[in-house]
Design goal:
Helix content: 40-55%
Radius of gyration: 25 Å
Low-confidence stretches: none
Structural class: alpha/beta
CATH architecture of the largest domain: Alpha-Beta Complex
Order of helices and strands: EHEHEHEHEHEHEHHHE
CATH superfamily of the largest domain: Spore Coat Polysaccharide Biosynthesis Protein SpsA, Chain A
Largest sheet: 8 strands, mixed
Number of domains: 2
Distance between the termini: 8 Å
Mean pLDDT: 85
CATH topology of the largest domain: Spore Coat Polysaccharide Biosynthesis Protein SpsA, Chain A
C-alpha cells in the first residue's frame, strides 16, 4: 500500500474471529490493490478474548484499534470511522460472510450520484432462526424507521466520508444508519451482494441484540419526530392529563357539594389527583428536555480504546 493519504478506508469490526481475520485481510488487500488508489485497512478489535489480536498483529498493512473490552459492533464501527482517513469508507463484517469482491461494483454505483450504497444479502447463508428474527425486525423497521432498503442489517456498505461528519453510533445503531442518513438528505441506494457461509467461529447474534435493536429503533423514531421539540410530546401528554383530571375533579366537587355524593370510599378523587400530578410532571419534564437540548450536549465516549497499532 502506498504511503500517501488513503482514498479508501476498509473498516472491519472483529470480535473473536481468529479463524477468519487472516483470510479476510488477504481478500481485502487483493481488492484494494485493484482499485488503483491508496487504501487502508482498519480492524477494530472489539475486546476479543481469543487469538484475534495476536493474528491481526502479524498482518500488513493494517491499523488495529484495540478496545479494552467488548463494546459492540456499533461502537467498533464508530471508532473505525472516526480514525479512518479515506474519502470513501467501506465497512464489512469480520466473520468473512461479506464478500470483499463486491466492493468495486458498489463503488461504481456510488459514483452514479449516490452518497451511500448498501449491500442486500439476497440469498442469506444464515440459520433459519437468525433469518426469522431478522424478518420480524424488518417488519417493525418498516413501521418505525422506513429506511427504503431491503437489508438494513447488512454491514457491507460504501459511504462518502461526509455521511458521518455529525453522526455517532452506539447500542445497535449500525442497523439504523441508512434511515438516519436518508432523513438527513443523503442519497441512498442498494445492490444485491454475495453472502457466504461462516467458515469458522460462532455468530455473535443473540436474543439480547434483538431487544437492544428494538429499543434503539424506538430511540431513532423518537429522535426523528421530536428531537427539536420534546416539549410538544411531553407537554401535550401533560395537558391531556391535566384537562381530564381537572374536569373529573370539578365533576366530583359539584356532585359532593350539591348532590351529597360520598367520596370517602371512592377511588375517583385519587385518580383525579394522580392525573393532575402526572400532568404537571410531564410538563416539567418537557420543559427540562427543551432546556437540555438548547444548552447543547457534551459528547461522552461510550467506548474506551486501549491502544492503536499500525502495521505498515
Amino acid at each position: 500500500m502506498a504511503t500517501k493519504k488513503p482514498f479508501y478506508s476498509f473498516i472491519i469490526p472483529v470480535f473473536n474471529e481468529a479463524g477468519n481475520v487472516a483470510s479476510l485481510h488477504k481478500e481485502i488487500k487483493a481488492v484494494g490493490k485493484k482499485l488503483k488508489k491508496p487504501f487502508e485497512i482498519i480492524a477494530v478489535n472489539d475486546g476479543s478474548n481469543d487469538a484475534t489480536l495476536k493474528i491481526l498483529k502479524t498482518l500488513s498493512p493494517v491499523k488495529i484499534i484495540n478496545f479494552r473490552k467488548n463494546f459492540g459492533q456499533s461502537a467498533a464501527l464508530d471508532a473505525g470511522i472516526k480514525h479512518a482517513q479515506g474519502e470513501i469508507l467501506i465497512t464489512m463484517d469480520g466473520d468473512g460472510q461479506n464478500d470483499p469482491t463486491d466492493a468495486p461494483k458498489m463503488l461504481d454505483k456510488l459514483n452514479k450520484g449516490y452518497d451511500v450504497v448498501c449491500g442486500w444479502r439476497y440469498h442469506r447463508q444464515d440459520p433459519f432462526s437468525k433469518r426469522f428474527i431478522s424478518d420480524g425486525a424488518k417488519f417493525l423497521k418498516k413501521y418505525f424507521v422506513n429506511d427504503g432498503v431491503h437489508d438494513s442489517g447488512c454491514t457491507l456498505r460504501v459511504y462518502r466520508r461526509e455521511c458521518f461528519d455529525h453522526l455517532d453510533l452506539y447500542g445497535e445503531m449500525h442497523r439504523m444508519i441508512p434511515a438516519l442518513l436518508r432523513w438527513n438528505g443523503f442519497r441512498i441506494t442498494e445492490i444485491k451482494v454475495n453472502h457466504r457461509r461462516r467458515k469458522s467461529g460462532q455468530s455473535k447474534y443473540d436474543w439480547k441484540r434483538t431487544f437492544k435493536g428494538f429499543l434503539d429503533m424506538l430511540d431513532v423514531w423518537f429522535w426523528r419526530k421530536y428531537k427539536n421539540r420534546p416539549l410538544h410530546l411531553f407537554g401535550s401528554a401533560g395537558l391531556v392529563f391535566l384537562f381530564f383530571s381537572i374536569v373529573l375533579g370539578a365533576y366530583l366537587l359539584i356532585k359532593r357539594l350539591f348532590f351529597g355524593y360520598g367520596l370517602a370510599d371512592k377511588i375517583w378523587p385519587l385518580i383525579a389527583v394522580t392525573g393532575f400530578i402526572t400532568g404537571i410532571q410531564l410538563l416539567v419534564f418537557g420543559l427540562l428536555a427543551n432546556l437540555i437540548l438548547k444548552s447543547g450536549n457534551n459528547h461522552n465516549d461510550f467506548y474506551k480504546i486501549k491502544s492503536i497499532i499500525e502495521e505498515k
